[in-house]
Write a structure and sequence with these properties.
94 residues, mainly alpha
Amino acid sequence: MANLVKRLSLPEAIGLSVSVICPTVTAAFNITLVVQAAGAAAPLAFAIGTVAMVLVALSFMAFTHRVAHAGSAYAYISHTFGSRMGFIAAGVYC
């Protein structure tokens, strides 16, 4: 094996570690907050959220059949509504 070379400083390594863990922590906190807010209706709230996400996934599947692109919200929206709307949908505001 080749010798490993140190390429990241300590703050960079910590930042990378936190960025990898964040999606899992966010999901864990969101579940507890939804259950606290919804109470006994929490399963219904998750079922409604699941249906909404399935509709989003089906929309992306439909776009992939119509537009030959690597796939992102920007690409599909800019193809349909123009680059300005795609830019807005990408979450960047100038």
